[in-house]
Amino acid sequence: MINSYDDYLKYLEADRASLNRKATLVNLLFDDIFKFQRTMRKLEYLTNCNKNKLLRLLTRYRYRLQSRQLGFEIPINVFGPGLSIAHAGTIVVNGGAKVGANCRLHVCVNIGTEAGKSTDAPTIGDNCYIGPGVKMFGKIVIGDNVAIGANAVVNKSFPEGNATLGGIPAKVISQKSSEGLLICGYIS
Predict the structure, then answer these.
(1) Counting CB atoms within 10 angstroms of each CB, which of 9, 19, 21, 24 has the fewest?
(2) 103: buried, middle or exposed (CB in 10 Å: 19+, 13-18, 0-12)?
(3) What is the Cα–Cα distance from 115 to 138, expressed in whole angstroms?
(4) pLDDT tier, 112 (very low <50, low <70, confident <90, very high otherwise)
(5) Residue 10 sits in which domain range?
(6) pLDDT surpasses 90 at 42
(7) What is each CA distance from 58 to 22, 39, 43, 53, 54, in whole angstroms?
Protein backbone atom coordinates (compact mmCIF):
# COMPACT_ATOMS: atom_id res chain seq x y z
CA MET A 1 0.00 0.00 0.00
CA ILE A 2 1.22 3.50 -0.80
CA ASN A 3 1.87 5.32 2.47
CA SER A 4 4.41 7.96 1.40
CA TYR A 5 5.63 9.87 -1.62
CA ASP A 6 8.59 7.48 -1.91
CA ASP A 7 6.16 4.53 -2.03
CA TYR A 8 4.19 6.35 -4.73
CA LEU A 9 7.30 6.78 -6.88
CA LYS A 10 8.30 3.12 -6.38
CA TYR A 11 4.84 1.91 -7.42
CA LEU A 12 4.88 4.13 -10.53
CA GLU A 13 8.28 2.82 -11.57
CA ALA A 14 7.31 -0.82 -10.88
CA ASP A 15 4.11 -0.42 -12.94
CA ARG A 16 6.00 1.22 -15.81
CA ALA A 17 8.58 -1.58 -15.83
CA SER A 18 5.91 -4.32 -15.64
CA LEU A 19 4.03 -2.74 -18.53
CA ASN A 20 7.34 -2.67 -20.43
CA ARG A 21 6.88 1.01 -21.27
CA LYS A 22 9.64 3.53 -21.73
CA ALA A 23 9.12 6.87 -20.00
CA THR A 24 8.71 8.74 -23.29
CA LEU A 25 6.45 11.72 -23.89
CA VAL A 26 4.37 9.66 -26.34
CA ASN A 27 3.71 6.95 -23.72
CA LEU A 28 2.99 9.53 -21.02
CA LEU A 29 0.43 11.32 -23.20
CA PHE A 30 -1.16 8.66 -25.40
CA ASP A 31 -0.91 5.26 -23.70
CA ASP A 32 -4.36 5.00 -22.10
CA ILE A 33 -3.58 2.02 -19.84
CA PHE A 34 -0.37 3.62 -18.59
CA LYS A 35 -2.28 6.87 -17.91
CA PHE A 36 -5.00 4.90 -16.06
CA GLN A 37 -2.47 3.16 -13.84
CA ARG A 38 -0.67 6.43 -13.09
CA THR A 39 -3.99 8.03 -12.14
CA MET A 40 -4.86 5.04 -9.93
CA ARG A 41 -1.52 5.28 -8.10
CA LYS A 42 -1.89 9.04 -7.68
CA LEU A 43 -5.37 8.58 -6.19
CA GLU A 44 -4.03 5.89 -3.84
CA TYR A 45 -1.27 8.27 -2.72
CA LEU A 46 -3.62 11.23 -2.22
CA THR A 47 -6.17 9.09 -0.36
CA ASN A 48 -3.81 7.09 1.86
CA CYS A 49 -1.67 10.10 2.79
CA ASN A 50 -4.72 12.34 3.29
CA LYS A 51 -3.42 14.98 0.87
CA ASN A 52 -5.16 17.98 -0.73
CA LYS A 53 -8.91 17.28 -0.73
CA LEU A 54 -9.65 19.25 -3.91
CA LEU A 55 -6.84 17.53 -5.83
CA ARG A 56 -8.08 14.19 -4.50
CA LEU A 57 -11.62 14.90 -5.75
CA LEU A 58 -10.37 15.96 -9.19
CA THR A 59 -8.15 12.89 -9.42
CA ARG A 60 -11.04 10.62 -8.37
CA TYR A 61 -13.21 12.19 -11.09
CA ARG A 62 -10.48 11.65 -13.72
CA TYR A 63 -10.00 8.08 -12.47
CA ARG A 64 -13.71 7.31 -12.93
CA LEU A 65 -13.72 8.79 -16.44
CA GLN A 66 -10.70 6.73 -17.44
CA SER A 67 -12.24 3.61 -15.85
CA ARG A 68 -15.42 4.00 -17.91
CA GLN A 69 -13.46 4.70 -21.10
CA LEU A 70 -11.34 1.55 -20.71
CA GLY A 71 -14.04 -0.72 -19.23
CA PHE A 72 -12.33 -1.18 -15.86
CA GLU A 73 -14.01 -1.38 -12.45
CA ILE A 74 -10.92 -1.49 -10.25
CA PRO A 75 -11.00 0.03 -6.75
CA ILE A 76 -7.89 1.63 -5.31
CA ASN A 77 -5.57 -0.16 -2.86
CA VAL A 78 -6.19 -3.64 -4.28
CA PHE A 79 -3.07 -4.24 -6.40
CA GLY A 80 0.52 -4.23 -5.21
CA PRO A 81 3.39 -2.67 -7.18
CA GLY A 82 4.16 -3.92 -10.66
CA LEU A 83 0.61 -4.15 -12.01
CA SER A 84 0.41 -4.82 -15.74
CA ILE A 85 -2.99 -4.53 -17.42
CA ALA A 86 -2.58 -6.14 -20.84
CA HIS A 87 -5.57 -4.70 -22.73
CA ALA A 88 -8.49 -2.33 -22.43
CA GLY A 89 -11.78 -4.14 -21.89
CA THR A 90 -14.00 -5.40 -19.13
CA ILE A 91 -12.14 -5.99 -15.85
CA VAL A 92 -14.14 -6.08 -12.61
CA VAL A 93 -12.42 -6.35 -9.21
CA ASN A 94 -14.05 -6.33 -5.78
CA GLY A 95 -12.67 -3.80 -3.29
CA GLY A 96 -12.09 -6.56 -0.73
CA ALA A 97 -9.63 -8.41 -2.97
CA LYS A 98 -5.90 -8.19 -2.26
CA VAL A 99 -3.37 -8.82 -5.01
CA GLY A 100 0.41 -8.94 -4.51
CA ALA A 101 3.25 -7.50 -6.55
CA ASN A 102 3.79 -8.11 -10.28
CA CYS A 103 0.33 -9.16 -11.38
CA ARG A 104 -0.43 -9.37 -15.12
CA LEU A 105 -4.12 -9.00 -15.77
CA HIS A 106 -5.96 -9.64 -19.04
CA VAL A 107 -9.34 -8.66 -20.45
CA CYS A 108 -12.70 -10.00 -19.16
CA VAL A 109 -11.36 -10.88 -15.71
CA ASN A 110 -13.71 -10.87 -12.71
CA ILE A 111 -12.35 -11.05 -9.16
CA GLY A 112 -15.31 -11.01 -6.78
CA THR A 113 -17.11 -12.39 -3.78
CA GLU A 114 -19.55 -15.19 -3.17
CA ALA A 115 -23.20 -14.26 -3.57
CA GLY A 116 -24.41 -12.32 -0.55
CA LYS A 117 -20.96 -11.85 1.00
CA SER A 118 -19.55 -8.41 0.30
CA THR A 119 -16.09 -8.85 1.85
CA ASP A 120 -15.12 -12.47 1.15
CA ALA A 121 -12.90 -11.77 -1.86
CA PRO A 122 -9.77 -13.54 -3.13
CA THR A 123 -6.24 -12.95 -1.85
CA ILE A 124 -3.70 -13.41 -4.64
CA GLY A 125 0.06 -13.71 -4.15
CA ASP A 126 3.02 -12.15 -5.94
CA ASN A 127 4.03 -12.77 -9.57
CA CYS A 128 0.65 -14.02 -10.75
CA TYR A 129 -0.54 -14.18 -14.34
CA ILE A 130 -4.32 -13.99 -14.77
CA GLY A 131 -5.36 -14.94 -18.30
CA PRO A 132 -8.27 -13.62 -20.37
CA GLY A 133 -11.75 -14.44 -19.10
CA VAL A 134 -10.70 -15.74 -15.67
CA LYS A 135 -13.40 -15.68 -13.00
CA MET A 136 -12.30 -15.85 -9.35
CA PHE A 137 -14.69 -15.59 -6.45
CA GLY A 138 -15.04 -16.29 -2.76
CA LYS A 139 -12.68 -16.17 0.18
CA ILE A 140 -9.88 -18.05 -1.56
CA VAL A 141 -6.09 -17.81 -1.44
CA ILE A 142 -3.89 -18.10 -4.52
CA GLY A 143 -0.17 -18.53 -3.81
CA ASP A 144 2.83 -16.87 -5.42
CA ASN A 145 4.00 -17.54 -9.00
CA VAL A 146 0.67 -18.89 -10.24
CA ALA A 147 -0.48 -18.75 -13.86
CA ILE A 148 -4.23 -19.00 -14.41
CA GLY A 149 -5.26 -20.06 -17.90
CA ALA A 150 -7.88 -18.42 -20.08
CA ASN A 151 -11.52 -18.76 -19.01
CA ALA A 152 -10.71 -20.66 -15.80
CA VAL A 153 -13.22 -20.47 -12.97
CA VAL A 154 -11.35 -20.41 -9.66
CA ASN A 155 -13.60 -21.07 -6.65
CA LYS A 156 -11.22 -22.82 -4.25
CA SER A 157 -7.82 -22.01 -2.76
CA PHE A 158 -4.44 -22.96 -4.21
CA PRO A 159 -2.13 -21.53 -1.52
CA GLU A 160 0.96 -23.56 -2.46
CA GLY A 161 1.62 -21.52 -5.61
CA ASN A 162 4.17 -22.34 -8.35
CA ALA A 163 1.57 -23.94 -10.61
CA THR A 164 -0.64 -23.41 -13.63
CA LEU A 165 -4.39 -23.52 -13.05
CA GLY A 166 -7.05 -24.10 -15.68
CA GLY A 167 -10.50 -25.46 -16.29
CA ILE A 168 -14.01 -25.13 -14.88
CA PRO A 169 -13.72 -25.46 -11.93
CA ALA A 170 -10.01 -24.70 -11.86
CA LYS A 171 -7.48 -27.36 -10.95
CA VAL A 172 -3.71 -27.66 -11.17
CA ILE A 173 -2.92 -28.61 -14.76
CA SER A 174 0.86 -28.14 -14.60
CA GLN A 175 3.65 -27.44 -12.13
CA LYS A 176 4.93 -24.68 -14.43
CA SER A 177 4.88 -21.32 -12.65
CA SER A 178 4.17 -17.87 -14.09
CA GLU A 179 7.84 -17.40 -15.03
CA GLY A 180 8.10 -16.06 -18.56
CA LEU A 181 4.48 -14.87 -18.68
CA LEU A 182 5.04 -11.52 -16.99
CA ILE A 183 7.69 -8.90 -16.38
CA CYS A 184 8.56 -8.42 -12.73
CA GLY A 185 8.80 -4.65 -12.39
CA TYR A 186 8.94 -4.86 -8.62
CA ILE A 187 11.79 -6.71 -6.92
CA SER A 188 11.46 -6.89 -3.13
Answers:
(1) 24
(2) buried
(3) 8
(4) very high
(5) 1-71
(6) yes
(7) 27, 11, 9, 9, 6
